[in-house]
Amino acid sequence: GQSLEQPSEVTAVEGAIVQINCTYQTSGFYGLSWYQQHDGGAPTFLSYNALDGLEETGRFSSFLSRSDSYGYLLLQELQMKDSASYFCAAVSGSARQLTFGSGTQLTVLP
Amino acid sequence: NAGVTQTPKFQVLKTGQSMTLQCAQDMNHEYMSWYRQDPGMGLRLIHYSVGAGITDQGEVPNGYNVSRSTTEDFPLRLLSAAPSQTSVYFCASTGGSGTGELFFGEGSRLTVL
C-alpha cells in the first residue's frame, strides 16, 4: 500500500522559517505535492516536485529526494495567515491519483 | 469562474438512508475524484474517474457508488448511510497534466445519526 509520514504539529513565530518533512512509501511513484488547508476550507495546491531538488514559489519552497523517499516544504518569512494544515501527497499509479499524508498543523505565533 | 461545485454543503441523514452528493466542474477536466476527510486525518480517496464512462475504486470505496456519464459531473452515492460515514467529503478534478495539482470543491459536511 501507500503511506506518508509527516509531523502532526509544528509551531513557529512570525517572521521565522519552518520546515515540514514528509517521508513516503509508494509504489509507482511519480512525484510529491503539497497542499494547504485552512480550518473549514478546501485544500489548495502549493507545489509539486517530480524531480529531485528544490522548487521555489515565493515564500514557499519544496524539496524532493527520490532516493531517500523524502521531501519537505519550507516556509519562509512566516505570517499569521500561514497558520493552517499542510499535507504532502504522493502522486502514483496509471491514473496519477494522489495519496495524502495525515497533515501537519502549523501554528504561527506573534 | 465556478471551478468545482459541490452540493449540498451540509446534510444530516439517519442510518440506512441514501443520498447523492453532487459534484460538477466547468474546466473540462478528464480526471475527477472523491475524498473523505475525518478529524486528524488526511484525505482518503473513495473513487475516481479518468473520463466519462470510466470509474475506479480508491482506498475506501465500501458503501459508496459513483458514475460518470458526462465530463462535467461526478456524483457520489451513499447507498445505506452508516454513522461511520460521518465525514467531510471533497470532490476534486484535474486536467491530467501530471502536475499533481487537484482543484477541490468547498466540501460537503455529512452527519449520519
Largest sheet of chain B: 7 strands, mixed
Structural Rg of chain A:
13 Å
**Arithmetic mean of pLDDT of chain A:** 95
Terminal residue distance of chain A: 41 Å
- Please compute the radius of gyration of chain B using only Cα atoms: 13 Å
The number of helical segments of chain A is: 0
Structural class of the secondary elements of chain B? mainly beta
**Helical percentage of chain A:** under 10%
Distance between the termini of chain B: 36 Å
Strand content of chain B: over 45%
Biggest interface found: A-B, 26 and 27 residues
Q: Which key phrases capture this entry?
A:
heterodimer, A: 110 residues, mainly beta, five-stranded antiparallel β-sheet, 0% helix, B: 113 residues, seven-stranded mixed β-sheet, 11 strands
Task: Give a quick rundown of the structure.
With 110 residues, chain A is mainly β. Chain A has no helices and 11 strands. In chain B, β9 and β10 form a beta hairpin.
Structural notes for this entry:
The complex is a heterodimer of chains A (110) and B (113). Chain A has 110 residues and is mainly β. Chain A has no helices and 11 strands. Chain A has strands at 3-5, 9-13, 18-25, 29-37, 44-49, 53-57, 60-65, 70-75, 84-92, 97-100, 104-109. In chain A, strands 2, 4, 5, 9, 10 and 11 form a 6-stranded mixed sheet that branches. In chain A, strands 1-3-8-7-6 form a 5-stranded antiparallel sheet, with no helix packed on it. Chain A is globular. Chain B starts with a strand and ends with a strand. Chain B is built from no helices and 11 strands. In chain B, strands 2, 4, 5, 6, 9, 10 and 11 form a 7-stranded mixed sheet that branches. In chain B, strands 1-3-8-7 form a 4-stranded antiparallel sheet, with no helix packed on it. The interface between A and B is medium-sized, with 26 and 27 residues.
